[in-house]
Amino acid sequence: MLPAYLPNPVAALLGGGTPVDLGRNYTDGRRIFGDGKTFRGLVAGILAGIGIGLVQIWAWSAYNLVFLPGQTLLSVVLLAVGALLGDLVKSFFKRRFKKERGSRWPVADQYDLVAGAFVLLLIADPGWLFSRVTVPAFIFILILTPILHRAVNIIGYRVNVKEVPW
Ligand code: CTP
Ligand code: MG
């Protein structure tokens, strides 16, 4: 899950500048995505996710870690792109429900990246998804994700990268 987990914190760290919606509004008069979704965050986050995935591919083979679920170039790209696409889609619906940028939206804020990554894998590489993410692994991901999310956001808040601790 590393290629899916890394893009969000890296986007928070390196994001900013031109928003993906270019400041435009949706038909309801509210922003399409909001100022929290930027091109720089998207590009930096996806590259970071792909980068850590390539390190995994290299390390698994260099140290013969065949017992660990193997990444492929495709799985790495789908996990990283899917994580931030999920985040983007989440923000789209967050705006439609009149929630301001940075406001709290429990469950969606935590699981957007998992949903986005898994939906992309389901579409483009279901074989990888079902062979690597077994039922116990999936349950573990569902438990681990909100815990990691909370911990990383508190750290981000303390070091002044995030404006809110969620
Ligand atoms: N970020 C970015 N580009 C992205 C995703 C995130 O630049 N595609 C940066 C933004 O600076 C954002 C921060 O990372 O404020 C934290 O991300 P997130 O919590 O997802 O955004 P929010 O500001 O909370 O906005 P939203 O309410 O839409 O989730
Ligand atoms: Mg947020």
Write the layout of secondary structure elements.
Layout: H1 2-5, H2 7-14, H3 39-62, H4 73-96, H5 108-124, H6 126-132, H7 135-158
Helix pairs in contact: 2-3, 3-4, 4-5, 5-6
Residues 102, 109 line the site of magnesium ion.
Overview of the structural elements:
The chain has one domain (2-134). The longest helix has 24 residues, at 39-62. Helix 4 crosses helix 5 (108-124) and helix 5 crosses helix 6 (126-132). By secondary structure, it is mainly alpha-helical. It has seven helices and no strands. The protein has helices at 2-5, 7-14, 39-62, 73-96, 108-124, 126-132, 135-158. The radius of gyration is 16 Å and the shape is globular.
Please state the average pLDDT score: 96
Largest sheet: none
- Total separate domains: 1
Q: How many helix segments? A: 7
Q: Rough shape?
A: globular
Defining key terms:
single chain; 166 residues; mainly alpha; globular; binds magnesium ion
Condensed summary:
The protein is mainly α and about 170 residues long. The protein has helices at about 1-5, 5-15, 40-60, 75-95, 110-125, 125-130, 135-160. The model has no long low-confidence stretch (mean pLDDT about 95).
